[in-house]
Write a structure and sequence with these properties.
The protein has about 210 residues and is an alpha+beta fold. It has a domain of about 140 residues: 2-Layer Sandwich (Alpha-Beta Plaits). The protein is built from 7 helices and 5 strands, in the order ααβαββαββααα. The strands form 2 sheets. Strands 2-3-5 form a 3-stranded antiparallel beta sheet. Strands 1-4 form a two-stranded antiparallel sheet. The N terminus is likely disordered. The structure holds iron/sulfur cluster (2 copies). One iron/sulfur cluster binds next to helix 3.
């Protein structure tokens, strides 16, 4: 008995719901509105296309596009990274791993006390937000416009320090080598070192 009365109570409600979902069909749209739709299609056929034949054709990115990272050098070739790990702490995706180490006079990679001995960026995690480059106190870490980072092996998307270091430009010496004569870390950070001096090369020679 109870079941019967319940079903009777529910029936009007279900019917009302069905009615509220009915589609209102006003019949075929008028000839003028169909013509308007076709006109949009026709006009679009003559517009300049945005598609390019990538990878044969590559469009330039916006100047401040966030692409692959780069670890920069001072003008004499010493590395700007001091292994402070601030970039790793700033990263919301936990994509950066840094291990710092002490420089010595016999084996110097950066001005000052420390350098980045191990530096990895995991591009399987990176979301290219740029927070790491904002956190870097020495402008060692910046982002390039390079965006071709796809690979078919996950391991290859963990970039090591060698993959990220900027290439040696004219006037630079490959570290380790001593600092510029009479320069200290402040001189380097103020950008007052013009390039490698012959003295740095001569002292570095015995270590090669
Ligand atoms: S760009 Fe963002 S996600 Fe990528 S390493 Fe830097 S902080 Fe992390
Ligand atoms: S890249 Fe910059 S923030 Fe990161 S460890 Fe090197 S100096 Fe520190």
């Amino acid at each position: 008995m109870n079941n019967e009365s319940n079903s009777n109570e529910l029936e009007p409600l279900n019917r009302a719901e069905r009615e509220s979902h009915e589609v209102i069909d006003n019949g075929p749209s008028g000839f003028a509105s169909q013509l308007k739709g076709f006109w949009v299609t026709f006009r679009t056929m003559f517009k300049k296309v945005n598609t390019v034949q990538y990878p044969e054709v590559k469009e330039a990115t916006a100047p401040r596009f966030h692409g692959r990272h780069q670890l920069n050098r001072h003008p004499d070739g010493l590395e700007k990274c001091i292994g402070c790990e601030l970039c790793a702490w700033a990263c919301p995706a936990d994509a950066i791993y840094v291990e710092g180490a002490d420089n010595s006079e016999g084996e110097r990679f950066s001005p000052g006390e420390r350098y980045g001995k191990v530096y990895q960026i995991n591009y399987l995690r990176c979301v290219f937000c740029g927070l790491c480059i904002e956190a870097c106190p020495t402008r060692a870490l910046t982002m390039t416009n390079e965006y071709e980072l796809a690979d078919d092996q996950r391991q290859k998307l963990i970039f090591e320090k060698e993959d990220l270091l900027a290439p040696l430009r004219a006037g630079m010496l490959l570290p380790p080598h001593p600092m510029y004569p009479d320069a200290d870390d402040q001189t380097y950070y103020r950008g007052e070192v013009p390039g490698a001096s012959p003295l740095q090369e001569n002292i570095a020679e015995p270590n090669k």
